[in-house]
Amino acid sequence: MISFLHSAAVQGINACLIDVEVDISSGLPIFSIVGLPDTAVKESRDRVVSAIKNSGFDFPTKKITVNLAPADIKKEGGLFDLPIALGIIASSGTIAAKSLNKICAIGELSLDGKIRPVKGILPIVLSLEKFGIRKIIVPEKNKYEAAVAKNIEVYPFGELQEVVKFLKNEIQKVPFSNGNIATHPEEFSTTADFADIKGQFFARRAAEVASAGGHNMIMIGPPGSGKTMIAKRIPTILPPMSFEESVETTKIWSVSGLMQAGESLVYQRPFRSPHHTTSSIALVGGGSYPKPGEVSLAHNGVLFLDELTEFKRDVLEVLRQPLEDKIVTVSRAKNTLTFPASFMLIASMNPCQCGNYGSGAKECTCNPYQVMKYRSKISGPLMDRIDIQVEVPALKIEEITSEKNTDAENSYNIKKRVVKARHIQLERFKGKNMYCNAQMGPKEIKKYCLLDDKACILLKNAIEKLGFSARAYDRILKVARTIADLAASDIISSAHIAEAIKYRSLDK
Length: 508
Ligand SMILES: Nc1ncnc2c1ncn2[C@@H]1O[C@H](COP(=O)(O)OP(=O)(O)OP(=O)(O)O)[C@@H](O)[C@H]1O
Ligand SMILES: [Mg+2]
Ligand SMILES: [Zn+2]
Known about the structure:
This protein is an alpha/beta fold. It has 2 domains: 2-167, Ribosomal Protein S5, domain 2 (2-Layer Sandwich); 194-439, Rossmann fold, CATH 3.40.50. It has 20 helices and 18 strands. The protein has helices at residues 39-54, 81-91, 121-128, 143-146, 160-167, 201-213, 227-233, 243-255, 280-284, 294-297, 313-317, 320-325, 368-375, 380-384, 397-401, 411-428, 442-448, 453-466, 470-486, 494-502, and strands at 2-11, 14-25, 31-34, 63-69, 103-105, 108-109, 115-116, 135-139, 153-157, 217-220, 271-272, 285-286, 291-292, 302-305, 327-331, 336-340, 344-349, 388-391. The strands form 6 sheets. Strands 11-14-17-10-18 form a 5-stranded parallel β-sheet. The chain has a 4-stranded mixed β-sheet with strand order 1-2-4-3. Strands 5-8-9 form a 3-stranded parallel β-sheet, sandwiched between helices. It is elongated and about 85 Å long. 45% of the residues are buried. The model has no long low-confidence stretch (mean pLDDT 89). Zinc ion is lined by residues 352-354, 356-357, 364-366.
């Protein structure tokens, strides 16, 4: 007898529908799975046999053929265990084949018949709506994430036996609901705060502007001036994520297996800080089953590259494309996948090998050639893509030894301004799939970055004198837009342009 149900396979951060067909016929007892399954699907065979037996059902000693269609989709992971087991149980007559009608089942089985959580649940449930499937059976531990899709009935289960009882109508269950997940309490870190940072008012303000508009920022300065400290405090002033941003980021985290049981969405903006020994694939994504890299895991959040010059040059160069396009495209023999990668790059570096070039506090022991060679580790095109470049000088002795740090504003107050400025941007870009000024393309720059006459003249003069590239010109306009938003000004004035130009300290 043949039975039929649906499952799904993750492709990038989307999912496609997989038809699971199970045929049991008389013949030599052979259990085969066809449809280009990889080793993981083959292993699934052993798990399915044990799980069915250990859940108290007979495993048919007949010829069992499982077909996972379409065949040309590369399938991965144990998530087909549950639908295969259900298909076998239905084909052997324990449950009525029609009870599997229009049902999607996802889940890995353990040998004793328990249902284990899987990766990629959110992309799967969000895709199901498109395919006209309304019911999904998911592992208990994935239920919060699954219930994010409001038009799908989610039935979570912990054991195969329970699913069978449910399908036989022996137990009743109402679909699981998360309640209102669009609103959530805001967490506020008490461990790190901008109030901890002494001095460095220029860099603090730059961090505020960067956070308000989602701009990239690099800090250059001698050891121990507070660069890492500032970077680590940026999450404390970032605006909360909108629901749409949360869903986007969660899809990426979900396929990477980073969602914890009990979590429905990623609510905190990501802060990813890969080590400088990281590979290009780990950074931008790829592999034979293409996986998102750090740039995508940082989507809608921060990618922090501390000690930028320590990263391998070729690793840094692959950053150029996502920095410009805000997506990563991975090509495979059969298809092309794209992962979103709209992140704020925050980087730090020393000005030279010894770290003291231009610091004034200590003498630099490098010769001019060494300084040049050190700086050339970061290519011009990469630096060009960093909107805000600030020097973070060594602290003055009075600043280091001052007991009171009364001038340093705390994160709570800075964040209030950032949130206000970001709110203006959300209104500006409503319905455009854009959330902040850094995401503006040429069209939006033209439309929204309107300068008054004085600002126009100032910018023209600066380009002439300082020789900015065309890209730097666009980036100055975007940063100036954010500075104007912080001041709640529609028009960009010369003061806003002047401040934006100050943040191109390496460009001159
Ligand atoms: N502006 C500052 N205010 C208060 N403490 C500071 C400041 N700058 C540095 N410190 C102290 O020095 C330590 C090192 O600072 P941090 O790691 O941020 O330096 P850095 O600029 O990243 O240096 P490196 O270039 O060596 O990485 C901090 O943990 C803190 O104790
Ligand atoms: Mg540091
Ligand atoms: Zn030096």
